């Protein structure tokens, strides 16, 4: 009986540790954000589409058809492959545009707090490099 309890306790500890590892990993960029995705990375995409393209999305963290359509519009407007998914190319483009906007506003002496906050909160949640 004691051995069975010890094994269950060890199993629960391993599951809890795995959960912590998965949670920590989730803080890094998802390789692709698209339909069915949810959480903070999707909120970051929705905020970016609202800030960059005035998409008027509800920032609810659920990647639905309106978010997909806004991403497709962004991709088309920025010469990207249009698939409605935020992978390395689209993520990198979004980060580059926001970085340039933040840099320009700071250079001109007025910081856009919304974009600066997006940059610090969301940069690591989207794949892609600033170019």
From TrEMBL:
Record keyword Acyltransferase present: no
Signal peptide boundaries: 1-29
UniProt keyword annotations, A-Z: Signal
InterPro entries for this protein: Peptidoglycan-bd-like (IPR002477), PGBD-like_sf (IPR036365), PGBDSf (IPR036366)
One protein family per Pfam: PG_binding_1
Keyword Signal in annotation: yes
Domain (Peptidoglycan binding-like) ranges: 38-90
UniProt protein name: Peptidoglycan-binding protein
Organism: Actinospica durhamensis
């Amino acid at each position: 009986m004691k051995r069975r309890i010890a094994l269950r306790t060890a199993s629960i500890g391993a599951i809890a540790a795995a959960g912590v590892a998965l949670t920590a990993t989730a803080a890094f960029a998802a390789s692709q954000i698209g339909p069915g995705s949810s959480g903070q990375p999707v909120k970051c995409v929705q905020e970016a589409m609202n800030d960059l393209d005035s998409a008027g999305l509800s920032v609810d963290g659920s990647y639905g058809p309106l978010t997909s359509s806004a991403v497709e519009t962004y991709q088309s407007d920025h010469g990207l492959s249009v698939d409605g998914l935020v992978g390395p190319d689209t993520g990198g483009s979004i980060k580059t545009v926001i970085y340039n906007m933040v840099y320009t506003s700071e250079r001109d002496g007025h910081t856009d707090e919304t974009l600066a906050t997006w940059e610090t909160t969301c940069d690591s949640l989207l794949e892609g490099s600033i170019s």
